[in-house]
Amino acid sequence: MAIYQCTIETCTVAEHGKIHYLPNLPANIIYLVIFALLFFLHLGLGARYRTWGFTIPIIMGAACEVIGYGGRIMGRSDPFSLNPFLVYLVPLTIGPAFLTASIYLCLGRIVTVYGRIHSRLAPRTYTIVFVTFDLVSLILQSIGGAMAAQSVTQSQLDNGVHVMMAGLIWQVVSIVLFLIVWTDFVLARRRAVASGMGSGNGNVQFDGLIGSEGFTYFQWGKVIGRITYLYSHHRFTDILYPTALLASTLLILIRCIFRVSELSGGFNGSEANNEVEFMILEGPMIFIATGLMAAFHPGRAFKGLWGVTGWRGGNVNGGRTEHSGDVTEVEGRGDFAGKV
User: Fold this and answer.
1) Res. 9 pLDDT band, cuts 50 70 90
2) Kind of pairing, strands 326-329 and 320-323?
3) How far is CA 1 from the centre of its chain?
4) CB 294 within 8 A of CB 41
5) What does the alpha-carbon distance between residue 62 and residue 87 come to, in Å, rounded to a whole number?
6) Residue 327, SS3?
7) Coil, strand or helix: which one is 204?
8) CA distance 232 to 287
9) What is the pLDDT of the chain when averaged over all its residues?
10) Strand ordering across the sheet containing 326-329
């Protein structure tokens, strides 16, 4: 019997369904509601703090999650239909790519605050490079998902899966590279502080941010941030690295690794049809990451200077910081002064 002729009464979901189980209704409704709340929460925070560069990708990712879990709920009534499967598959696959774009924007601004002299890359370069990586990943995942969902033969299905996996692997590699350059920046800044060179870029507008509890919490999270804040104000060496931004990045990385593993066996594989694993390693990883970005929102952390640290509001080049018509000279110092 052809799949498109199947109904709940005439076919078994395990044999003919697009996914081999009926999604749990209460759990998927809960996830949908969580992401809907996060959507409106970030929208409100973005409007309040005018952090639209950060907010727009976040709410796009949250919207994808809402649509995706809506598709899973739709699939309960017709698990053999292509449309609910596509509505579930594509948005949930591409959604996290929008979240990482917001994280990349945050790092560029943190570099601006602490000083270009501590970084091998200019602040805008982080955004250009890694958002481009995100875009490539998003395109590959979207194309692969569409190919796989519309496949008729096994070879077409396999081709779609392979393209989706390529996009997810690209995303994993991109995140790992991002963590490497982020770590490089953090270590360089610490070396500068330890050697007495300071950690700021010389702009008086940012002096109030560096070392403040809010800015520290934004990077480090509430508990670890408090410890780091106390350590820094008692002149202890800061040896802790986990941050709120880092936690979000790692959660997304875990989710991406899971999806690569899931798809490695194809849509008919056991892992791709294990709802318990999916509901643990997909949704929670993303809504916790999104929630962290709301709890430690950059609008509060940057104390109204989010726009100043952006491309238009501020530009740091070779130890020289420009801001809205006034220029603050910064003496070149540190390992990376003058490097592109």
Assistant:
1) confident
2) antiparallel
3) 43
4) yes
5) 14
6) strand
7) helix
8) 31
9) 77
10) 314-317, 320-323, 326-329
Among 139, 45, 129, CA closest to 97: 139
Closest by CA position to 287, among listed 27, 29, 62: 62
Region 267-276 average pLDDT: 87
Please count the other Cβ atoms lying within 10 Å of the Cβ belonging to residue 303: 15
Helix (H, G, I), strand (E, B) or coil at 321: strand
Task: Single out the residue of 19, 35, 95 nearest to residue 263, CA to CA.
Answer: 19
* Tokens, residue 235: 């002149």
* Torsional sign, CA 159, 162, 166, 172: positive
Could you give the 3-state DSSP secondary structure of residue 110? helix
What is the reported pLDDT for 316? 40
Q: Please, what is the angle between helix 244-264 and helix 213-220, to 10°?
A: 10
Residue 123's pLDDT band (boundaries 50, 70, 90)? confident
pTM: 0.78
Q: What is the DSSP string of 120-168?
A: SS-HHHHHHHHHHHHHHHHHHHHHHHHHHHT--SHHHHHHHHHHHHHHH
Residue closest to 88 by CA, chosen among 37, 168, 23, 139: 23
SS3 320: strand
**pLDDT surpassing 80 at residue 327:** no
Could you tell me which residues come within 8 angstroms of residue 195 by beta carbon, excluding any fewer than 6 positions away? Answer: none
HEC sequence for 284-306: HHHHHHHHHHHHCCHHHHCCCCC
Nearest to 106 by CA among 62, 54, 171: 54
Residues found in the chain: 340
